[in-house]
Amino acid sequence: MLELPPYYRVGFQAHCRHRARQFHLTAGDDRLLIYGDAGGHDAHCGQCGSLLYSLVREGAYVHVARGTLTGDPSIRPSAHIFVGSKAPWFTITDDLPQYREHVTG
Fold first, then answer.
1. How far apart are the first and last CA of the chain?
2. Rounded to an integer, what distance in angstroms lies between the CA atom of residue 38 and that of residue 80?
3. Cα 32 to the chain's mean position, in Å?
4. DSSP states along 35-74
5. Is 21 helix (H, G, I), strand (E, B) or coil?
6. 3-class DSSP assignment, residue 84
7. Taking the complete model, does pTM exceed 0.85, yes or no?
8. Do 35 and 41 contact (CB within 8 A), yes or no?
9. What is the pLDDT of residues 69-101, one digit of tens each?
Protein backbone atom coordinates (compact mmCIF):
# COMPACT_ATOMS: atom_id res chain seq x y z
CA MET A 1 0.00 0.00 0.00
CA LEU A 2 1.22 3.50 -0.81
CA GLU A 3 0.81 6.06 1.94
CA LEU A 4 1.83 9.63 1.19
CA PRO A 5 3.61 11.60 3.93
CA PRO A 6 1.41 14.21 5.67
CA TYR A 7 3.13 17.15 3.95
CA TYR A 8 2.00 15.76 0.57
CA ARG A 9 -1.63 15.40 1.59
CA VAL A 10 -3.06 18.28 -0.35
CA GLY A 11 -6.55 18.63 -1.76
CA PHE A 12 -5.43 17.74 -5.24
CA GLN A 13 -2.63 17.98 -7.73
CA ALA A 14 -3.52 18.23 -11.39
CA HIS A 15 -0.87 17.16 -13.84
CA CYS A 16 -0.79 15.81 -17.35
CA ARG A 17 1.53 13.13 -18.66
CA HIS A 18 3.51 13.46 -21.88
CA ARG A 19 6.16 11.35 -23.52
CA ALA A 20 9.46 13.01 -22.66
CA ARG A 21 10.45 13.32 -26.31
CA GLN A 22 7.36 15.52 -26.88
CA PHE A 23 8.22 17.87 -24.01
CA HIS A 24 10.30 20.98 -24.67
CA LEU A 25 11.01 23.93 -22.42
CA THR A 26 10.68 27.21 -24.27
CA ALA A 27 12.58 29.38 -21.78
CA GLY A 28 14.03 29.47 -18.29
CA ASP A 29 15.78 26.11 -18.18
CA ASP A 30 18.83 27.85 -16.68
CA ARG A 31 16.71 28.93 -13.68
CA LEU A 32 15.37 25.51 -12.66
CA LEU A 33 16.15 23.67 -9.45
CA ILE A 34 16.55 19.99 -10.38
CA TYR A 35 16.29 17.27 -7.71
CA GLY A 36 17.31 13.88 -9.08
CA ASP A 37 19.14 12.75 -12.19
CA ALA A 38 18.68 12.18 -15.93
CA GLY A 39 16.58 9.06 -15.32
CA GLY A 40 14.10 10.78 -13.01
CA HIS A 41 13.86 14.14 -11.36
CA ASP A 42 11.63 16.94 -10.16
CA ALA A 43 12.10 20.39 -11.66
CA HIS A 44 11.16 23.37 -9.51
CA CYS A 45 11.06 27.10 -10.18
CA GLY A 46 14.36 28.57 -9.04
CA GLN A 47 12.62 31.68 -7.79
CA CYS A 48 9.59 30.43 -5.83
CA GLY A 49 10.26 26.68 -5.54
CA SER A 50 6.99 25.55 -7.16
CA LEU A 51 7.01 22.12 -8.77
CA LEU A 52 6.90 22.57 -12.55
CA TYR A 53 7.32 19.03 -13.83
CA SER A 54 8.67 15.60 -12.99
CA LEU A 55 10.67 13.35 -15.28
CA VAL A 56 9.59 9.77 -14.49
CA ARG A 57 9.86 6.14 -15.61
CA GLU A 58 13.56 6.21 -16.43
CA GLY A 59 13.16 9.44 -18.38
CA ALA A 60 10.38 8.19 -20.66
CA TYR A 61 7.58 10.47 -19.41
CA VAL A 62 7.11 13.96 -18.03
CA HIS A 63 4.33 14.88 -15.60
CA VAL A 64 3.64 18.60 -16.05
CA ALA A 65 1.82 20.58 -13.36
CA ARG A 66 -1.25 21.93 -15.15
CA GLY A 67 -1.11 25.20 -13.24
CA THR A 68 2.09 26.05 -15.14
CA LEU A 69 0.50 25.82 -18.59
CA THR A 70 -0.28 29.05 -20.40
CA GLY A 71 -2.99 27.59 -22.62
CA ASP A 72 -5.88 25.17 -22.39
CA PRO A 73 -4.47 21.61 -22.37
CA SER A 74 -7.65 20.48 -24.21
CA ILE A 75 -8.00 17.33 -22.11
CA ARG A 76 -9.95 17.00 -18.90
CA PRO A 77 -9.42 14.85 -15.80
CA SER A 78 -10.62 11.27 -16.18
CA ALA A 79 -10.22 9.99 -12.60
CA HIS A 80 -9.00 10.76 -9.09
CA ILE A 81 -5.99 8.72 -7.96
CA PHE A 82 -4.42 8.33 -4.51
CA VAL A 83 -7.68 9.26 -2.80
CA GLY A 84 -6.59 7.04 0.09
CA SER A 85 -4.05 9.73 0.96
CA LYS A 86 -6.04 12.86 0.14
CA ALA A 87 -6.49 15.60 2.69
CA PRO A 88 -9.31 14.62 5.07
CA TRP A 89 -10.88 18.07 4.76
CA PHE A 90 -11.22 17.84 0.96
CA THR A 91 -14.43 16.37 -0.46
CA ILE A 92 -14.50 15.14 -4.05
CA THR A 93 -17.79 16.33 -5.47
CA ASP A 94 -17.74 15.14 -9.09
CA ASP A 95 -18.68 11.75 -10.55
CA LEU A 96 -15.23 10.76 -11.82
CA PRO A 97 -13.93 7.33 -10.75
CA GLN A 98 -11.88 7.36 -7.54
CA TYR A 99 -8.93 5.07 -6.87
CA ARG A 100 -7.20 4.60 -3.53
CA GLU A 101 -3.81 4.21 -5.22
CA HIS A 102 -2.37 4.55 -8.71
CA VAL A 103 -4.17 2.98 -11.65
CA THR A 104 -2.19 1.23 -14.36
CA GLY A 105 -3.20 0.89 -17.95
1. 18
2. 29
3. 16
4. EEETTEEEEEETTT--EEEEEETTTTEEEEEGGG-SS--S
5. helix
6. helix
7. no
8. yes
9. 777 777 778 888 888 888 888 899 999 999 998
